[in-house]
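Hello Y.,

Per our agreement to keep a running log of every chain we model this quarter, I'm adding this entry. I've kept the format consistent with earlier entries: sequence first, then predicted structure.
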Amino acid sequence: MEQARSEPDVTMHWIGEEREPLVVIDNLAPDPDTLREIARQLDFAPVGTYYPGVRAAVTDAYFGAVWPRLSSVIREFFGYRRSVEVLRSYYSLMTAPPESLLPAQRIPHTDALDDNQIAVLHYLCPDHTDGTAFFRHRSTGFETVNEARYARYNAALEADFREHGVPEAKYIDTSNAIFDQVHACSAKYNRALVYRGKMLHCASVSSPEQLLVDPMAGRLTVASFIAAQ
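Predicted structure for the entry above:
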């Protein structure tokens, strides 16, 4: 794909009332087609409790392709200078039908409680436009949840469930009684979102029938979690 091989296009957004940075990198990988082909050959399996799908650890080829561009963006836009280190990274396929979701999978989540952990979501699905949305928790006003906020947030969330009921079994992709959507970014082939892992967010899923196990047809992404100082 000629566009995917062009130079990266980097855009900065400031999200919500907390003004957290969200960096959008279009054309992150020089050759995304090769990364998809690598994913096709991997064995995907469930990883952890809460990801609604299957994953496979990335190969060395992935960061060999994207790390120079990605690390420079993290240093430039987030201000980290001492170190930028990958903690874990997975090819990921969302596959769970809405009716199977656990209560925790029906609401926005954070990837980390660490103020300095960076999340990177890289879309490698040419036929999908469902991206990622970011949220504010209505009763606390929190758009991020770190260690200092965790206990208060959990207590408020339990109170919300008592008042409004457990959210119905579906992917959240808009505002509801408990959460307000503050920003949404559509998926685009070879686009990456870079943000602090403490931000409340969730995948937008408008067509659950497209959540396929096949890496060449499903919602293939790479999710990376990076420690920065």
